[in-house]
């Protein structure tokens, strides 16, 4: 699963290339146990909870290698009718994985095992057994370890159809494990919505089997909450995290590590919603719990989060104090060149940039870049890419877009072969698109936005507010390239999304209204442009107030359109040269009244 805010193992732990279920259906192990952990690929340290993770594939190739076994050719193997063969092949597959002999041999065994279980069930005229489910889980895990996630999906979808939940806890466990593993796989493909849907079904099975206050239900609730955070469904994430906190309070000692992890996640959610004071309260309580448990590095990680909150509240002196405390601990426990040290340097660079101390800001940026240039063993590419992205934002703010673009390109190259990073790459491409637009490289801006839009569509984020904003920015790039029809389609789609996600009174939505009105006028659709501007003015007069300086501009635009429409309704479309705002990135001589497109 996508490890947005948590990991199961420390960054310097050796990665597991394949993770398969450890519980065989029908064994003596209690079925209500949690499924085994999957290999983490953390996006950024530290981890506020030990719950969410995702597989670490051995490679990211999507096509089977030449020597990969062909499942269809195995169906005709008469030896698969032997009822003793399936369990034997399944054991061979697991032993091969454990011995590290190579995933392709294990893949062959797992495919033959699952086919054997299927064939035997058909021959006996029985329903498929849970042995088939186990073999499919193992097969799906091997496909994921090879980076062949698309092939894992149908295997795991077949696995979740076999269990009959009315037949007891073994079947419930098999169903729960299958849905969670399928959710992991969808997450690695960037299909966040499908991933969350699978997690929710797994949680429901677990609740029905164990009850609502079982501690294992709490772990799954937190797992699902983190998925909702990644999908930016913060209200749902907060609801689940509160439930997790209640369960852990009922089953754990006061100030437990589990409660601290829950509070760190809750703080992250509150911060994302702009509720800084509650976020700070949760972090303070989490820090007290970690101090009681002598978790110094975790306390330092919480200090970084506390510093972030203080910076959001413009309490800069307190933020510096928190960052320096964390920096001292990280240097003494992990060394001067650890990525955790670099991450604090980045935060200090951002703080000093915000307070106008550009020399100090640049110095911290350079120190962080030196660490990222020569990462210590165990540093993940996600950590480096995240740091480079944050530093690029500082360079962009100080008017160095070219340097910022170089850093974003490096970050994108680090992530491009990593599964489950489509949304992150899309965000980087959107940032690059904005900077290309700023420096007047409109064709490159459009291409970057187009690539970001494509990734966001496939990852299930086509209904998010961020997606609407990216569509609006791509439309602006199309306007600069005089691709007016394409710009109109993008603005219309952005309007529909932002109206749904943000409401008509949100500044982003109103900006799209203005851009769409200008585009309609450029296309000669004056009546449509008038209708939109009248709607915007009505919103301002009735709900937003008329103090906004844009009000008079929009009012004069509407008056001009009404006047022109009264003279000649079938007038020719205006040239886009007369629609770009004189204060926009492209400098032009003002010859007529111009429209101001809004980013």
What integer value in Å does the Rg equal?
Answer: 28 Å
- Major sheet summary line: none
Unreliable sequence segments:
1-67, 69-75, 567-594
Structural class estimated from helices and strands: mainly alpha
Number of helices: 24
What portion of residues is helical?
55-70%
> How do the helices and strands follow one another from N- to C-terminus?
HHHHHHHHHHHHHHHHHHHHHHHH
Total number of beta strands: 0
Mean pLDDT: 80
The end-to-end distance, rounded to whole angstroms, is 34 Å
Shape type? globular
Summarize the structure.
The chain is 66% helix and 0% strand. The longest helix has 22 residues, at 103-124.
How would you describe the overall organization of this protein?
With about 600 residues, this protein is mainly alpha-helical. The chain has 24 helices and no strands. It has helices at about 70-75, 85-100, 105-125, 130-145, 150-160, 170-190, 190-210, 215-230, 235-250, 255-270, 275-290, 295-310, 315-335, 340-355, 360-375, 380-395, 400-415, 420-440, 440-460, 465-480, 485-500, 505-520, 525-545, 550-565. The radius of gyration is 28 Å and the shape is globular. This is MalT-like TPR region domain-containing protein. It comes from Populus deltoides. Keywords: TPR repeat. Pfam families: TPR_12, TPR_7, TPR_8. InterPro entries: TPR-like_helical_dom_sf, TPR_rpt.
